[in-house]
Design brief:
By secondary structure, the chain is mainly alpha-helical. It has eleven helices and two strands; from the N terminus they run H-H-H-E-E-H-H-H-H-H-H-H-H. The C terminus is likely disordered.
Length: 265
């Protein structure tokens, strides 16, 4: 779990960038572990959609196209709406109070990574009473697939305030016990994020200017690249964005920082 957690956060923070080859021996050396937990971690991240196994090249950091992001939301929306529909008859007052407390914390949170973690907790609090373990596990996996893009949505596209308004509409409908209204509010919330993200990524994709690649052997040793965590930085987005954007993004293959130094907040 430790190795998977470190690699996952390094990918989500743009330290390991889209298209970058992941050398198991170098990861093992940096993290002070054997090759076995590294292989297990990479398989786990492959199941989450964050890395891909390429023939004759090994594992690479995944890069989703705008169309793939849209498809993931197409899968997520009915699943999450089903989870909420099943959960609502079982939501207790303490569940609603916990969800409201999470939203209050999100209002004050300025770090996109921490905000996204709270966002996951808010949705999980509403879905958990459904008591459908397989459904909830699938939802968590799909949310992990697009978490980088959610950070982009919040940090670069400045959607935090609007997203919070949508969250409160969902919670208010849940409080009233109005299942159709709550489900419709959730569907709209996810659909807005999907459409805006896909449109943004398509615009970035059409204006992408390829950057020079760094020399071989520097995949883990050079300084961390800017990412959506760093407000005010300039970087390329993961899906193939412009060579410079006002606030962070995910780049294509090139340099990346050391794993240990980039996994924290």
């Amino acid at each position: 779990m430790f190795v998977a957690d470190v690699l996952r956060e390094a990918i989500l923070r743009n330290i390991l960038i889209a298209g970058q080859q992941l050398r198991q021996d170098e990861i093992a050396r940096q993290l002070g572990v054997s090759h076995t937990p590294v292989r297990e971690a990479l398989r786990r991240l492959e199941a989450e959609g964050l890395v891909r196994l390429q023939p004759n090249r090994g594992f690479m950091v995944s890069a989703l196209s705008p169309e793939e992001v849209g498809q993931l939301y197409e899968i997520r929306i009915p699943l999450e709406c089903t989870a909420l529909r099943l959960a609502m008859p079982h939501l207790a007052p303490e569940d609603l109070a916990g969800a409201e407390q999470i939203l209050t914390s999100m209002d004050a949170e300025t770090d996109p990574a921490a905000w996204c973690e709270l966002n996951n907790r808010f949705h999980a609090a509403l879905y958990a009473p459904a008591r459908r373990d397989r459904l909830l596990t699938l939802i968590r996996t799909l949310r992990t697939n697009v978490e980088y893009y959610l950070r982009l949505y919040i940090a670069v596209m400045q959607r935090k305030q609007f997203s919070q308004q949508e969250h409160r509409r969902i919670l208010e409908a849940v409080r009233r016990g109005n299942v159709p209204e709550a489900v419709a509010a959730l569907e709209e919330h996810l659909d807005i994020a999907s459409r805006m993200l896909v449109d943004h990524l398509r615009r970035e994709q059409t204006s992408w200017v390829p950057a020079a690649r760094g020399p071989a052997g520097r995949a883990y040793g050079s300084p961390p690249r800017p990412d959506v965590h760093a407000s005010g930085t300039r970087a390329r987005s993961r899906a193939g964005a412009r060579a410079a954007t006002p606030q962070g993004g995910r780049g294509h293959a090139g340099h990346a920082g050391g794993l240990r130094g980039g996994s924290g907040s």
